[in-house]
């Protein structure tokens, strides 16, 4: 998808203190990178702190690079390592994001008022994807149970699946949503979506 799109893209893998060979696999991809058109990098956290902490560290890393490059018009796509978010939905997520960050301004012409639309990629916005699980699988049943509990406690977070790691957000939103998370583990998504709702 990234190679076929006109998007300038980079991949950042955040290794959350894993004991497998994640870092060396990413490094080998980088070394083969003479032919790779999408740069890949790895941020390694010395000890496991949880999914929320890993994403927060990755977003902080990206924000630092964007500040150094003076580029605030950045979109961040988060994806779980299990690949449960299907890239086939990404174009639809980008289209929805474009709708959310489009700002209409009135301009005065010689005889009439016109609406002019501008895309403001610095505007805070988030779009959630969905996962491909069979509802009647063990994972699907667990997901349904957790979502039911979240709905009862948190009311409407305006998403079907709060734990879906497949999220597209502007850099502005990402910095706001992931700064100083209280929940650093897998349930951090509920906190992030609650913050987005506010």
The number of strands is: 7
The sequence of SSEs as H and E is EHEHEHEEEHEHH
Estimate percent helicity. Answer: 25-40%
Gross morphology: globular
- C-alpha termini separation: 33 Å
Mean pLDDT: 86
Question: What report would you give on this structure?
Answer:
- With 198 residues, the protein is an alpha+beta fold.
- The protein is globular.
- The chain has a three-stranded antiparallel β-sheet with strand order 3-7-6.
- Helices cover 38% and strands 19% of the residues.
- The chain has helices at residues 22-31, 51-69, 90-101, 138-154, 171-178, 188-197; strands at 11-16, 40-45, 75-78, 102-108, 113-119, 126-128, 167-170.
In summary, what is this structure?
The chain has 6 helices and 7 strands; from the N terminus they run E-H-E-H-E-H-E-E-E-H-E-H-H. It has helices spanning 22-31, 51-69, 90-101, 138-154, 171-178, 188-197, and strands spanning 11-16, 40-45, 75-78, 102-108, 113-119, 126-128, 167-170.
Topology:
Blueprint: E1 11-16, H1 22-31, E2 40-45, H2 51-69, E3 75-78, H3 90-101, E4 102-108, E5 113-119, E6 126-128, H4 138-154, E7 167-170, H5 171-178, H6 188-197
Parallel strand pairs: 1-2
Antiparallel strand pairs: 3-7, 4-5, 6-7
Helix pairs in contact: 2-5, 5-6
């Amino acid at each position: 998808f990234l190679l076929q799109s006109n998007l300038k893209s980079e991949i950042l893998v955040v290794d959350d203190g894993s004991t497998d060979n994640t870092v060396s696999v990413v490094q080998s991809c980088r070394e083969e990178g003479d032919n790779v058109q999408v740069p890949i990098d790895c941020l390694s956290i010395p000890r496991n702190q949880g999914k929320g902490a890993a994403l927060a560290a990755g977003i902080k890393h990206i924000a630092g690079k964007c500040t150094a490059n003076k580029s605030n018009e950045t979109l961040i796509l988060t994806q779980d390592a299990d690949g449960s978010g299907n890239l086939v939905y990404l174009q639809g997520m980008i289209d929805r994001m474009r709708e959310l960050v489009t700002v209409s301004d009135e301009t005065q012409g010689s005889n009439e008022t016109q609406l002019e639309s501008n895309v403001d990629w610095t505007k805070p916005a988030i779009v959630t994807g969905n996962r491909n699980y069979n509802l009647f699988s063990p994972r699907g049943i667990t997901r349904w149970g957790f979502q039911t509990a979240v709905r009862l406690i948190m009311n409407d977070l305006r998403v079907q699946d709060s734990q879906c790691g497949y999220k597209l957000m502007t850099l502005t939103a990402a910095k706001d949503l992931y700064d100083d998370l209280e929940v650093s583990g897998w349930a951090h998504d509920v906190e992030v979506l609650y913050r987005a709702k506010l």
